[in-house]
């Protein structure tokens, strides 16, 4: 182990960094860059586990860190991104929709950590849901996507995260 | 157990809600309300565990959910609050300081979940560090606190979270 264990955890922390940077871009109303930051975080998130297993330093600490970072990058950051770029047009209901997405993401992650099933997922992973939301915001910078679309899409993804849908691992 | 288990988890989720609401206030440059939201989240955070133990429904799910919500409410929300209200005056270095605070918070939480020590804490708890930062921002709305003060204070709290300081549980 030794210093090798630091490498995958650095990748995980860069996922968190990108999530916070996305939030900061959302604050500055730079929604396209905010969406791209989330998609970059998704790439980091796909790498950390693989690196850890390859270096044979997969740890419980790494798993815990990973799900903490995931809530920020794929729960909170996309929720505030979709609220800032679209849902705030409908006022408090828009904020409630964004909050529901983040809450369902937190429930999904806590449930996943407790269930500890290894061959499939129960409910759509938060990484997938958050990245899809970011992708939709990115598409909306080119194509007109209505607030109604974003409301329904956000709620649907929130539901799918806490649903009992069996999702195969790839 | 039954439906009683829902009650403490609802309190935990309200902690997350307040964290996201704080981020939203920070986005709107309403720093005082953003700071108050974090302090309210702190109260919720003090209650959930007690309620769970009193109702005898303390669960691993609840513990996981709690630390996920803590990273948002006491790591990311205070970091962006202190950046928005003060540190952004010094540009990218200010953002880096805020990011270090959130990263150390994530490491603190992941380490705490893995160590699972029950009679004391190793390192200052993120709830305490995040609330102190929010309190400082609140005070700064009345008293002039310099960017230098916030830079040093934020880095000090970040360090204390990942330090090996033994903190008694109260």
Automatic annotation (TrEMBL), chains A, B:
Organism, scientific name: Desulfonispora thiosulfatigenes DSM 11270
Membrane disposition: Multi-pass membrane protein
GO cellular component, one term: endomembrane system
Swiss-Prot/TrEMBL catalytic activity: a CDP-1,2-diacyl-sn-glycerol + L-serine = a 1,2-diacyl-sn-glycero-3-phospho-L-serine + CMP + H(+)
Biological process per Gene Ontology, one example term: phospholipid biosynthetic process
Lineage: Bacteria, Bacillati, Bacillota, Clostridia, Eubacteriales
Localization, UniProt: Endomembrane system
Protein name: CDP-diacylglycerol--serine O-phosphatidyltransferase
Record's keyword terms, sorted: Lipid biosynthesis, Lipid metabolism, Membrane, Phospholipid biosynthesis, Phospholipid metabolism, Transferase, Transmembrane, Transmembrane helix
Family: Belongs to the CDP-alcohol phosphatidyltransferase class-I family.
Positions of transmembrane segments: 7-25, 90-109, 121-139, 145-162
């Amino acid at each position: 182990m030794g210093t090798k264990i630091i490498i995958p955890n650095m990748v995980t922390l860069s996922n968190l960094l990108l999530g916070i940077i996305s939030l900061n871009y959302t604050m500055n109303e730079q929604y396209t860059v905010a969406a791209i930051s989330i998609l970059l975080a998704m790439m980091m998130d796909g790498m950390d586990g693989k690196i850890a297993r390859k270096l044979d330093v997969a740890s419980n600490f790494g798993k815990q860190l990973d799900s903490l970072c995931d809530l920020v990058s794929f729960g909170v950051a996309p929720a505030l991104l979709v609220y800032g770029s679209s849902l705030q047009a409908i006022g408090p209901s828009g904020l409630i929709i964004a909050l529901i997405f983040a809450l369902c993401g937190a429930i999904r992650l806590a449930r996943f950590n407790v269930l500890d099933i290894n061959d499939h997922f129960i409910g759509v992973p938060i990484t997938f849901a958050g990245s899809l939301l970011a992708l939709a915001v990115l598409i909306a910078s080119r194509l007109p996507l209505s607030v109604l679309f974003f409301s329904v899409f956000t709620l649907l993804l929130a539901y799918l995260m806490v649903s009992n849908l069996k999702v195969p691992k790839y």
